[in-house]
């Protein structure tokens, strides 16, 4: 697999389109950090790290609106990819839907959202957009 982050986002996207309640994804430290951010920002209902086998897994409970049955995540878009990396400084941080969505960045201080990175005045690699 050349791009595990794209695989992670695709598995989430496919589970949302199929209206699954839970999705299981192979684990890595970067995927665990992205999952924590999605939970903290209210895009997923819950998550659990399973330490079985050589790699482990992440079980994510997806969040849906009770009345309309619409997912909390409207779009997951991969920005930086192995063939074309996208980096940004803190001064020109990307704004996702004019600040309503989040951009997830990999910085020297760890994985964080665009707003947290701008506060700390550090840039990094833009992994994905979520809204």
What does this structure look like?
The chain has 131 residues and is an alpha+beta fold. It has 3 helices and 8 strands; from the N terminus they run H-E-H-E-E-E-E-E-E-H-E. Strands 4, 5, 6, 7 and 8 form a 5-stranded antiparallel sheet that branches. It starts with a helix and ends with a strand. The mean pLDDT is 96.
Topology overview:
Elements: H1 4-17, E1 22-26, H2 29-40, E2 44-50, E3 57-62, E4 76-78, E5 87-88, E6 102-107, E7 110-113, H3 114-120, E8 124-130
Antiparallel strand pairs: 1-3, 2-3, 4-8, 5-8, 6-7, 6-8
Q: What structural category characterises the helix and strand content?
A: alpha+beta
Number of strands: 8
Average per-residue pLDDT, rounded, comes to 96
For the biggest sheet, the summary is: 5 strands, antiparallel
Which H/E pattern describes the elements? HEHEEEEEEHE
Beta content: 25-35%
Radius of gyration, in angstroms, nearest whole number: 15 Å
